[in-house]
Specification:
InterPro entries: TRAP_TAXI. This protein is an alpha/beta fold. The protein is 35% helix and 20% strand. The termini are far apart.
């Protein structure tokens, strides 16, 4: 009788353990998703891919967020977008192996690969191109009541020219130079886009150079508070600028952008994606394909301008990563 009771107790305990174990395996805490993702939404066993963008008030940051989501959905990578100091800082970070992919202006990428201007004695030789994205418009922003009507009117004014070594800083220097001015002729302030527009709103600065895709978030926010003016660049000055610095192209800020009453002539460079050259060819092929074949998932207005057919426009002598080159070759797209 005692042995029978002991056996019954053992079987009851064993059954109880099996039931608890089955419940645990079916609970949310113990389940594994069928798509290979863990509880945080990341794909199990996949590699992390870091994308450097720009300041939160610019265009790179929201675009980078959309692209990170696309890459995470369409490839084996878990991509994350990070804010940064943009072009020049991004090129340096890739050189140092601190990130995998980055946004840059085409002119800054060229300076980095050639060891020129802010990259003198600091040549970047491990970065390659994925492709160009859209025009980055040089916008000289002020208020309607500032009295500033031309680039020449910036003389003696407090003007934001971007961080030292940034793409904006180089654009400001070159545009002022064509107009016979330099940073010595203005009260140059090294501010981010958000700081620049905050400064214009508060009256602590008079104007700002902002190089970004239009509409730019920081300028849109300013235009909701103040009536702004975009300073034009004259046709002859545009011609001189392009002759000396061929990475520029003529561009226009359209009427209605920031509520301006008419089109404003200016110049632009191209935004592009660059990547560490060490990244695997197949990986970069898949990343390139994911981005250019899912641009409909990009929520920013600039997404409509990002096309595989135009991705090699303005690439100049910048070397393509073999993975990107394979993708564009399959599409019949040549530089």
């Amino acid at each position: 009788m005692i042995k029978w009771r002991s056996g019954l107790i053992f079987l009851t305990a064993l059954l109880f353990i099996m039931i608890i174990s089955a419940c645990g395996n079916n609970s949310e805490g113990g389940s594994s998703k069928s798509d290979g993702s863990n509880q945080s939404g990341e794909k199990a066993g996949s590699k992390t891919l870091s994308i450097l963008t720009g300041g939160t008030g610019g265009t790179y940051y929201p675009l980078g967020g959309s692209m990170a989501q696309i890459i995470s959905e369409e490839t084996d990578f878990n991509a994350n977008a990070q804010s940064s100091g943009a072009s020049a800082e991004n090129m340096q970070a890739l050189k140092n192996g601190e990130a995998d992919i980055a946004f840059s202006q085409t002119d800054i990428a060229a300076y980095a690969l050639n060891g020129e201007l802010m990259f003198k004695d600091n040549k970047v030789d491990n970065v390659k191109a994925i492709g160009t994205l859209y025009p980055e418009t040089v916008q000289i922003i002020t208020t309607k009541d500032s009295g500033i009507l031309s680039v020449e009117d910036l003389k003696g004014k407090s003007v934001s020219v971007g961080a030292p070594g940034s793409g904006v800083n180089a654009n400001a220097q070159q545009i002022l130079e064509i107009h016979g001015l330099s940073f010595d002729d203005i009260k140059a302030q090294s501010l981010s886009f958000d700081e620049s527009t905050d400064g214009i709103q508060s009256g602590s600065i008079d104007a700002a150079f902002i190089t970004a895709g239009t509409p730019t978030a920081a300028v849109e926010s300013l235009s909701a508070q103040k009536e702004i003016r975009v300073i034009p660049i004259a046709d002859d000055k545009i011609k001189q600028l392009i002759e000396k610095y061929p990475y520029y192209a003529e561009d226009t800020v359209p009427k209605g952008t920031y509520k301006i009453p008419e089109d404003v002539k200016t110049v632009a460079v191209k935004a592009m994606l660059v990547v560490r050259g060490e990244l695997d060819e197949d990986a970069v092929y898949n990343i390139t394909k994911a981005i250019f074949e899912n641009t409909n998932k990009i929520t920013h207005a600039k997404g409509k301008l990002i096309k595989a057919e135009a991705a090699l426009d303005g690439i100049g002598n910048l070397p393509l990563h073999p993975g990107a080159e394979t993708y564009f070759s399959e599409k019949g797209i040549q530089p």
